[in-house]
Every structure is written in structure tokens, then in C-alpha cells.
Amino acid sequence: MATVLDIAKHNPNAATLAVSDAARAAGFIEKKAELNVVAGATPGGASLVGLTRDQLKDSLFAIGVPERELKMRVAQLWHWIYFRGAKEFSEMTNVGKELRAKLAAAYTLARPQVVSEQVSKDGTRKWLIRMASTGPLDKGAEIECVYIPEVDRGTLCVSSQVGCTLTCSFCHTGTQRLVRNLTSAEIVAQLIVARDSIGDWPHATPPEGAFVPNDGSRFVSNIVFMGMGEPLYNIDNVIAAIDVMSDGEGLTLSRRRITVSTSGVVPQMERLGTEANTMLAISLHAVRDELRDELVPINRKYDIKQLLDACRAYPGLSNARRITFEYVMLKGVNDSDADARELVRLLKGIPAKINLIPFNPWPGSKYECSDWERIERFSEIVFRAGYASPVRTPRGRDILAACGQLKSETEKLRARARMMAEQGIGAEGVYALGDGE
Ligand code: SF4
Questions:
Q1: Of these residues, 144, 150, 186, 294, which one is catalytic?
Q2: By CB atoms within 10 Å of each CB, which of 135, 260, 352, 402 scores lowest?
Q3: Residue-wise pLDDT tens digits, 43-75
């Protein structure tokens, strides 16, 4: 569910479906996932990084580890992979030599490839990550992942799909072609890549000059599913990934510090609360069905009333576990005083926080960000009604940390690189051109 940090991408090698303006105008709500990929638990070089306990067990069984040893061996691997961040089987000193050799012959601890890393002046980091190929026609799906450090926390924004099944009109990812759901291992791997890059393992150190939380807390202390994709359309993998991320013997992220953001897939909300027990965020953005039908077209399936009823019924909801409502500020569209008052009326009785998000325009978008005075006025009305209504500070604007822009720019550069290579012009020229835009 992308909001501020949504991340766009498509894999040119996969069968895809573009969303044209005409299709949107005709009421196109959803695209279909084109491929279903299963996490690599088979011998033959598949990485064990990101796998669940059951998948690790299957992987060990497949190379002949006796049934009676499986539980103990899984615990050992779990500790090395998820607590210590091991990159080689040879580091696993409490695993016998013979088993280490078998593991190394059949598997790897490879991470997805980091294609590029960008660091903002404000410390925000953004990685373009290429997943392992899933077959002969797949060069590897690329996604982006963003790290937002603050003094007392470090938040990682992860993606759940490559592209998105939905078509929200203010969202750049919504314009992208969908490739596929990410596997649970690919979701977890985003956290592993981030922790590698910022030195967030025992005995590791952050890169020189890196901005990381300085209050002694973990460098990645919070996860938000606000990158590319609608998490509740990939709920099995999202729940499995959350189980791995929150496991107390490995990555140990508190479920209260994991937030899943949905555009409003009402039928899956209760399951998320019951099985994943995470915090919930709703990408609301409008207080009237007519407008929300346009901004967040899934509203035509599940309208505002159904959505808010599902929020009221969200398992574990309390003043200590509020739902975050995200509201992107669009000039002249959803930012009037009347909209603010209606928002307050609608949320009555729901323990809630309201995040006001200044719209970060992307090339070709038809919306503008509300003026600052308007955002303040809106915020004041909401605040006076008793809701926390922080205005989310845009982060990483200098590295295009929003709305799939890095991915789009990267694709533009690649296209230019191809064109210039054909014309015999060097790659440096490409990047100079790109920088200048
Ligand atoms: S659900 Fe809507 S806002 Fe979220 S990534 Fe998909 S199109 Fe964008």
C-alpha cells in the first residue's frame, strides 16, 4: 500500500498489463497478479535467507538431515541467519563441518542484489533491489526499499508486490504494470539487505557518517508495509514474513512496531489482526464515497462505511493500539475545512491517529500538493477534535524517495544508455544527462 514512500516498478520480461488513463476512466479497479512464485526451498543453489522455520526444515530434510535433528538444526540456522546476519555457512561454528559442506553444496545465504543505493541529505536511504530470477524468462524483479532514520527510531518501508494490483489515481505505483506478488522470503530479504547496508547486526558498524538512531535502539526498529503493492492482496506471504521478522530468536521486531497499510481490502482486515496482530494503517484520503471512488478505486467494492465498520472491528483495537488513517493533502480536492470536519465525524469512536501527508507530485500526476497554510488549518481542525494529526515531513526528496520515481528514472537512464550505446556515446554522458534533469 504505497503512500508517501510508494515504490514503482515493472519487470520488462514478465507478461504485464499497463494501466492507461482510459482504463482508469472506464472504472478499472484491479489488475491480476501475473505470476505466483514460491520461495526457493529446493536444493540447487537457492538462498535460505528469508525462509520461514517450516521452509528451512524442508530445505534441511531435502539434503538428508535426519528427522530427529531437524528442530535443533533449524534453531542453529535461524540464529546464524536472523540473529547474527551470517553470509557464509563457514561462519556457523556450532554446525558440524560435514553439514556445513552439504549446506554450501545445496544452498547459499545470498541476498537479493542491491542495484543501487541512494543516501539523502537527511539520512534517508533508498535501495533498488533485484530479486533472484524465478525462471528462464525472468531477469529478476526489481523493487525499492526505503530506510528513514530518526533520533529515536529507524523505520524501514517495505514492498509486498512488484507493482500493484490496484490503481489509486494519486499514486505512481498505480500506473505501473503489475508483475507479481513477492514471496515471504523476498519481503524478509528487504529487511536483511537494509540491516547489512547500515551495519545493524551484532559486531557490525554503520557506514561512516551514516545517520542512525542514537538512543541505543536498533537501527531498524519499525517496519511499515507502505512500499509498492497492496499487502492484503498478498496476505499469506505478508503474514509469513511478519512471523519471521517478529520471531524472538532472530530478527525480534515487536509486532507493535510493524504497521500494515491497506487501501481497504475489507474482507482480509480481520485476518490480519488475528493472525499477524500488527498495527493497522488505512489509506483513506477522502471522506466522501464519490471522491474516494476516484482516488482509491477499491472504494467502489468496499465503501467508506464498510471500511470503517471493519476498522471498528479490528482485533486488539484500543487507545494503546490506534489505527493510523493516512490522508494525502491534494490541493482543492480533499483539503477543505468541511473535509476536515467530516473526517472527524466519520472517525468518531475509533481510536485513531491521522497522518496528513503532503502530496509529493510525480511526472504526469494531475494533482498538486495543498498549500502549507491549508494543511495547517486542516490539521488544526482535526487536532481540536482530539486526534493527533502530525503532518508527515517529506523525507528523502533529493533522492526521489517517493512514488516509484527512482525506478522510473533508472528505467529512463537505461533506455538512454541503450540508445547512446547504439550511437556509440559513452555511459558517463547518460548519467550526466540524468543528473541534469
Ligand atoms: S494500493 Fe493504491 S496507493 Fe497503494 S501502491 Fe497500490 S495503487 Fe498505490
A1: 144
A2: 135
A3: 445 999 999 999 999 999 999 999 999 999 999
